[in-house]
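In response to reviewer comment 3 from the previous cycle, which asked for concrete evidence that the modeling workflow produces usable outputs, we include below a single protein chain processed end to end. The sequence was submitted unchanged, and the resulting structure tokens are shown without manual editing.
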Amino acid sequence: MRKNSIKNTRINGEVMKELSLIIRQEIKDPRIHMMTSVTSVEVAPDLKTCKAYISVMGSDEEKKDTIAGLRSAEGYVRRQLAKRLNLRNTPEIQFVLDQSIEYGGSAPMKLMFSILADKEDQQDAQSIEDKKPFLIPANPPKELPYCIPLLKNHDEVCSYSSLGIQHHDNALNDKETAESSMFSLNESTDEGEATSLGTAFHRLAQNAIDSRCQGKLSFPEGNLIQNQCRELSLTGVQQQRLVHALHRWFDSAIAQELASHLFVYAEVPFMVACKSFSDSSQTNSFNTPFFLEGEIDALACNIPLEKLPLDRDSFQIAYLVDYKTGGSPLETDQTIYVKHLLQAQCYAFALLKQGFSEVKACFVRVEQEDREHFGQPQVQRYEFKSEELEYLEMIISEAYKQSRS
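The workflow returned the following structure tokens.
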């Protein structure tokens, strides 16, 4: 089978991104299921044809109707792609039902759901809590609407990532090490070593944001890097990887873009209430609201977080960055897009729920170099608008329901 060239891989990624937006925001055919996503596209080298693989989270009949609806809109979709993409030919689109994966694919974020434990289950619940990378507990203690505002102060959540910087001579226990890597899920064969490297990077990146001066992020001082390497017992190879990742991040255009905002925050915790959707014809436990909880690596905006939640009449854009260590240079743009999509949707939902009008999410692969820009990290971007809030809530609810089934 012929391998895609770098150019063809880039075109596949661009077509997939625009196709996803067109299906989600512009096609109004009632046959197309709300839980429809583009998992991959294959554009022919001559740009004459394109296979778009579609995943539908619904019944067999709903999947059939969705594909029929998309096929009837092929002409419209092709015209929209011609307007958005600068290609010498606009390919004919062929929609193909993808039944090879469940929604979200092999997302690197470890998504976990749990029922809040009774007293006799406290020990088991604590074990889950120690390992939590992204927790959505059920049975919230308060009725909707209930929303804990985003906070910038680390005192409220006690981020030991920052404690590791300020008290670098203190030994860390296993719980702290596990939690500090909440979203630094490295794709390495050694999970313990990968977590240590990701933890070190996150701490140093957070410290740079907390000490930001005159709209600039400063490269960490040598003693801070050495302290992290010593505390986390990084090997010589890991230390080299860490330094290279730090240089790639702090020298990047996206780091400058982040720092240019009026307000920039690190390790921002959130907890928002989420409705649970279910089939009206069935009686089950998924009608109970639940909480979506997590922590954003870096968040930038032009208003202080103390003013949240915002009035819906105001227009404010949230700009978030999530760092990803590890990864493989062989992963295609399509793979990376699907890989981080659910995590991006969770973050976007939390921010839009707080009143932001638009969310721009950037997943930065600090150990992988951009294929077209020397020295720059790979960046997967997503954009969400307030009009998509209900759609995102349904996506998250469906993921929650599937985890409980």
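The longest strand covers residues 263-274. We consider this sufficient to address the reviewer's concern, and the full set will be provided in the supplementary archive.
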